[in-house]
Amino acid sequence: MMNIRLYVLQRATAMIMAPLVLAHLFIIFYAASRGLSAADILGRTRGSIGWGAFYALFVLAAAAHGSIGLRVIAAEWAGLRGRRLDIVMWSFGALLAMLGLRAVAAVVLP
Amino acid sequence: MTGTIEVSLWRGGKEGRYQVFSVPQRVNQTVLDVVTWVQRHADPTLSYRFACRVGMCGSCAMTVNGRPRWTCRTHTSKVIEDGKLRIGPLANLPVIKDLACDMRQFFEKWQAAKGVFSPSKTRADAIEKIEPASAPRVAADAAIECINCAVCFAACDTVRWNEEYLGPAALNRAWTLVNDVKDAANRERLAAVAANGGCTACHSHQSCQEHCPNKLNPTASIAGLKRRTMQAYLKGEL
Prior knowledge:
The complex is a heterodimer.
Chain A: H1 4-33, H2 38-45, H3 49-78, H4 82-108
Chain B: E1 4-12, E2 16-24, H1 31-42, E3 61-64, E4 67-70, H2 76-79, E5 84-88, E6 95-97, E7 100-101, H3 104-112, H4 135-143, H5 151-155, H6 157-161, H7 168-178, H8 186-194, H9 207-211, H10 218-234
Parallel strand pairs in B: 1-5
Antiparallel strand pairs in B: 1-2, 3-4, 3-5, 6-7
């Protein structure tokens, strides 16, 4: 259920997310303290390749990281094994990626 | 010291019940002494396992008042609660009868973790000198005193949740061999402990370290295997 490939991928995505989480929190505090409106924020994110890449990477890393974690929980606490376990992991990962990328598209696409 | 201890002993196999005995309390009495007293004076059909009685053979581990312990080195005075002792077989292993577990899967997992020394030299070669202060020798030394009692295996949450998991003792053993410069099978060993059920399944709860009667730290050994297997994977060796 957990092998070295998944283990390395989960650690690598954690390393990717660590600075992204800090940057994300900084952005939230910045936007709140400056009193930016939704229009202000969209004005900066729409059409921005940088913001799009930043949050798309964040979403994909979170989807991979979370789905591997859920895989272990599903195996150890729900007793899932084999193909059913793969289906749970891939479905959850795809759902997270889809919801996240949809949100990124909503604020980045012009 | 006088008085008696109310001792509940597991009777039966997977299905069974605790049977209560009244056992005389003695000075310096061990839990193994209590079990032996019951078999000799109260019920000769009681089944349990022991050999050396001095903490070397690792065969007498049982669950004592909820915790896995080596019974031969556990004084009753330290574990009695309200004058009572509840003694059962080790958890996470099939019960054969009463207090004796089937240890096969425990030792099969040692084999699966490649816990057997694989020599790199013949008797014709000179004996390799190992510096006692060298890093691999120090790492192996810290983990080498395992007596295979399965206390860590019984204490481990991951063993309970994941039947594939090799367990703390087998992985700790593999770590000693990974650090043995005379061993020739480390590529196969790292592949074995990097697979499903290997070192990456450990959640670092550290119950093994908490319960190990020899004060070993299998969690640290497993962390070493995680580092070593990750390095091997990134180099494309696995």
